[in-house]
Amino acid sequence: MSEKAKSPDRYLKMPPLYKIFLVVLVVLLVGSNTFWFTYKKGVADPSSVLAKQYPYLSKRIFIEDQNDFLINFIPLRNAMREYVNEQDGNVGAYFEYLPSGTSIGVNDSMEVKIASLVKVPVVMAIMKDVEKGKLSLDQKVTIKKEDLNRSFGDLWKKGAGATISIQEAIDLALIKSDNTASNILARTISDTRDSVLDALDIPNHGGDGGFIISPKNYTSILRSLYLSSYLQKSDSQRILEILTRTDFNDKIVAGVPKDIPIAHKIGVFDDESSVTQRVFSDCGIVYVPSRPYALCVMVKDQTEGEARQHIQVLSKMVYGFIAIADN
After folding, report:
1. How do residues 20-61 score in pLDDT, each as one tens digit?
2. For a disulfide at 267, which of 33, 115, 150, 248, Cβ 3.0-4.6 Å?
């Protein structure tokens, strides 16, 4: 090959189209190397940025590296079955390991009165209206006489005619489980609570005193928030974050270390005239680092003390397994 052929000056004599192609190729190669270098360094990973912005949502929806994948759940399954089966059908439990979807259900189709657990789909319906532009969170709503309920919360003390913002009502309904706030929200949504349950493909039917649902079906509500499948990411995140601040910490929360965030909702249907009409529930997402899971436990025909003990035992059992499992 001649010296003339080897000279870089020959590139200057190339037709314009080839020079453009060469420049584009060089830019792409350099840009690609820069991206992968910074990506591996964790500097330009967009999924990690989004994951930090929405810490209560699934990492899967940000196309990030998956969480720890545990495989062998047989010991936990056996332990849960043994405990629940000893309770003569009064306890139903459903566990789901969120990184993989592996689940354990024991008497998980047991249907009970949903009670305060319905407040989560009510808030989801409100947020859907906000997304559609039908409502705003700072919008004021007037309390009506039919909204007042003394069973849970203190909002009823304000009396009919007082006003409250939708955001304030949401906080009270989820954090304090305030029935008056929930009633306000339920009559404010443009559709019905059924519409949310239908959208989540959850079979439900009304009963004397409220909706009927099972631990397995209710977990679908939590999963839809975690995966942001019904609401936008920011609104799913908002609801889950509020649920980490609930006041009721004597059931699932009592079985988990205090530094582990838990987005959960309790439910109480307490007919004081008969113990057989009492239902106590707690359902939530436990954010063990890299190993989040959902747990929903419902107890019927028991006193509150007995129900509390059952839920605490199952919560400690599940957390203990997840925290130390290595398989």
Report:
1. 444 444 344 444 444 433 444 444 455 678 778 889 988 777
2. 115
Residues 311 and 286: beta-carbon distance below 8 Å:
no
Q: What is the DSSP letter of 53?
A: H
User: Into which CATH architecture does domain 51-135+190-324 fall?
Assistant: 3-Layer(aba) Sandwich (3.40)
Q: Distance between CA 120 and CA 274 in Å, rounded?
A: 27
Q: Are 225 and 118 in contact (CB under 8 A)?
A: no
CA–CA dist 21, 327 (Å, integer) = 51
Query: Is residue 184 within 8 Å of 164, Cβ to Cβ?
Result: yes
Q: Which residues pair with 113 in a beta bridge?
A: 212
Q: What does the DSSP assignment read for 198-257?
A: HHTT---EEETTEEEE-HHHHHHHHHHHHTTSSS-HHHHHHHHHHHTT-S--SSTGGGS-
Distances (CA, A) of 248 to 89, 174, 195: 25, 10, 28
